[in-house]
Specification:
The structure holds 2 protein chains of 2 kinds.
Chain A: H1 2-18, H2 21-41, H3 55-73, H4 76-85, H5 87-92, H6 98-127, H7 133-161, H8 164-180, H9 193-201, H10 203-216, H11 222-248
Chain B: E1 2-13, E2 16-28, E3 33-37, H1 44-51, E4 59-64, E5 67-68, H2 73-79, E6 80-83, H3 95-104, H4 110-123, H5 139-151, E7 157-161, H6 169-186, E8 189-194, H7 197-203, E9 206-211, E10 214-219, H8 221-226, E11 231-237, H9 243-253, E12 263-265, E13 268-273, H10 276-289, E14 294-300, H11 304-312
Parallel strand pairs in B: 3-8, 3-9, 6-7, 7-8
Antiparallel strand pairs in B: 1-2, 1-4, 4-5, 9-10, 11-13, 11-14, 12-13
Helix pairs in contact in B: 3-4, 9-10
The chains are: A mainly alpha, B alpha/beta.
Bound molecules: adenosine-5'-triphosphate and magnesium ion.
């Protein structure tokens, strides 16, 4: 299991690095947000209802989540391409555990994500952000797990649909409302009541709040607790769904 | 090596269900080279994918390499090599990477995998391409890489789905030779699908003919050919006016013995005899006596094409699935 996971991981990583366009695009977008959208927020924290902390501590966690969800949700496209080339079948005909075929790829995505998150955070520090190290590390773990969940859901859906044409609209329909309702760009504490209620239903908004309070250093706060709990639930569900699909579709 | 009973697979599509394979029974012994012959859409790939655990049968059971298909799919996977009909490698990866990674997934060590991979690449005439990205290979080279992928784990039971599609005649002959060597040197069992009757004829010990999801005939190439009575003789007469005379001589000599078994058009006469080579001298003598001048004579042994036509009412070439 571990052995096969490593083989799949090393192979996936090697191929990603050979053609790093996507990694770079995934990286430049949050940095563009940081540089071109961030300054607009600078005055926001004088608004009533803006959460405590510097605007960096509000904004950067949102970008991290965006990176995690968006980046990872779209990895399924790569799988469709691999499927079409016959790579997936050729792997499924080996005795390698089906789980390893999924985990190796997810591991690659998580590592890419963590590196992107690191670059983003370092860039934010250069721009002037200050945040407690421990909080940032815990936030990173959370983002990585969330990325793993989204990636494995994406792979599972890709394996079921086997078509970019189905995958693209499906993912967009899910990802955009989830992003908007999680208060990633502007905190939901600014939202009118109905919108805030909607966003409370969206599990990702709790994770964003959690990461924000981690960036502020409020480790014991309710937001942090809820963020971690909801994050753990999302991760568990995502991984279970991915794993089960890989088992079943490979019967 | 393979025993299957009542193997069936139904696909659900938006427009209803497709019965791709409807109850296939088959037995393949260790060390046999068995050909699975049938037109497009007959169910060859579907059967192969069931036997190699890639898709679950909707009915039936099978034992492959001593392992039960349903209860021990991992055991089956451990003992088989599989060459898919349509590609197996990532365009960005190199030949070497793909071969070694594939072997690693079988738990083969890296050094063994590399040595075996390089040897296969040499044997399949891909020498010097180890470092090449697979997207830069020609179609036939990529096909041979697919074959190498299926052989890298050194399995004793090998499934090849149309292994020679897209290969030039020399590469095809080379692959046949390789398959024979696998059986000769390693005692491997080979189960391959093909559209090419000459391939099945030249390579296989035994042939299963599948049509519309069912096996319609099995036997050695010779046995199948014997189902067609005799060799086909085609006479081309120099002067169309003498065609009736030629047909009359032919009627007396044909295995059918009546005029219905002789086909005539403007200047050709076609009929079957039990043994063409032996019938020819007397036939020519009779024709000369009847004053018929010939432009040409052709004797054709019955081919699997003829067998296929007899079994299914269609030739393999112009088959269009209904
Ligand atoms: N995934 C699928 N969904 C629906 N129908 C399918 C699917 N795969 C195959 N079929 C149908 O099942 C039948 C058998 O297909 P199969 O691929 O086994 O044929 P084949 O004998 O390998 O043909 P070919 O010589 O073209 O490779 C065909 O009618 C095909 O359209
Ligand atoms: Mg096929």
């Amino acid at each position: 299991m571990l052995l096969a996971t490593r083989v799949v991981f090393v192979r996936a990583m090697r191929l990603s690095l050979r053609n790093p366009t996507w990694i770079v695009i995934g990286l430049t977008q949050p940095i563009l947000y940081l540089a071109l959208f961030g300054p607009l927020l600078r005055k926001m924290n004088q608004l009533p209802g803006f959460p405590p902390g510097s605007w960096w501590q509000v904004f950067v966690p949102g970008l991290l989540i965006q990176l995690g969800i968006f980046g990872a949700l779209f990895v399924g496209f790569g799988l469709v391409a691999e499927y079409r080339a016959g790579v997936i079948e050729q792997m499924r005909v080996t005795p390698a555990p089906r789980m390893a075929l999924l985990l190796g790829r997810v591991l690659r995505d998580v590592i890419v994500l963590v590196v992107q998150a690191l670059v983003l955070t370092v860039a934010a520090v250069v721009f002037g952000m200050r945040a407690p190290i421990v909080g940032v590390v815990v936030a990173f773990v959370l983002v990585a797990l969330l990325g793993a969940a989204c990636a494995s859901v994406s792979y599972a859906v890709a394996l079921i649909t086997k078509s970019e044409d189905v995958l693209a609209p499906l993912l967009n329909t899910v990802a955009v409302p989830v992003l908007l309702l999680s208060g990633i760009l502007l905190p939901m504490s600014l939202a009118p009541g109905w919108l805030r209620t909607l966003s409370e239903i969206n599990p990702f908004s709790h994770v964003v709040d959690g990461i924000r309070s981690l960036f502020r250093g409020d480790f014991g706060s309710a937001d942090t607790m809820w963020g971690l709990i909801v994050g753990a639930i999302i991760v568990a569900l995502g991984l279970i769904f991915g794993a089960r699909t890989f088992q079943r579709e490979s019967a | 090596m393979i025993t299957a009973r009542g193997l069936a697979r139904t696909y659900r599509t938006r427009r209803g269900t497709v019965e791709a394979v409807r109850g296939v029974d088959l037995d393949v012994d260790a060390g046999e080279i068995v050909g699975f012959l049938g037109p497009n859409g007959a169910g060859k790939t579907t059967t192969l994918r069931m036997l190699s655990t890639l898709i679950a049968p909707t009915a039936g059971e099978a034992t492959v390499a001593g392992c039960d298909l349903r209860t021990d799919p991992v055991g089956v996977r451990r003992h088989i090599g599989y060459v898919a009909q349509s590609g197996s490698t990532a365009p960005e990866a190199t030949i070497g990477e793909e071969l070694v990674d594939h072997a690693l997934l079988y738990g083969i060590s890296k050094s063994t995998a590399t040595a075996r991979g390089r040897e296969l690449i040499d044997q399949l005439d891909l020498r010097g391409l180890w470092e090449r990205q697979t997207k830069t290979l020609s179609g036939g080279q990529r096909r041979r890489l697919d074959v190498a992928m299926g052989l890298i784990n050194g399995a004793r039971l090998i499934f090849l789905d149309e292994p020679t599609t897209g290969l030039d005649p020399q590469a095809r002959a080379n692959l046949w030779e390789h398959v024979r060597r696998l059986r000769g040197d390693l005692g491997a069992t080979v189960f391959l699908t093909t559209h090419y009757l000459d391939e099945a004829d030249a390579l296989c010990d035994r042939i299963l003919v599948i049509d519309d999801g069912q096996i319609v005939a099995t036997g050695t190439p010779e046995e199948l050919k014997r189902r067609i009575s005799g060799d086909l003789i085609t006479l081309t007469v120099a002067d169309p006016a003498t065609a009736p005379a030629a047909a009359q001589v032919a009627t007396g000599r044909s295995s059918g013995g009546d005029s219905a078994s002789v086909e005539t058009d403007a200047s050709t006469v076609r009929f079957r005899v039990d043994n063409g080579a032996r019938a020819l001298p007397a036939l020519l003598r009779d024709l000369t006596a009847a004053g018929v001048d010939l432009d040409g004579v052709e004797v054709r042994r019955p081919s699997l094409d003829d067998v296929f036509l007899t079994l299914t009412g269609r030739t393999l070439r112009d088959d269009i699935p209904a």
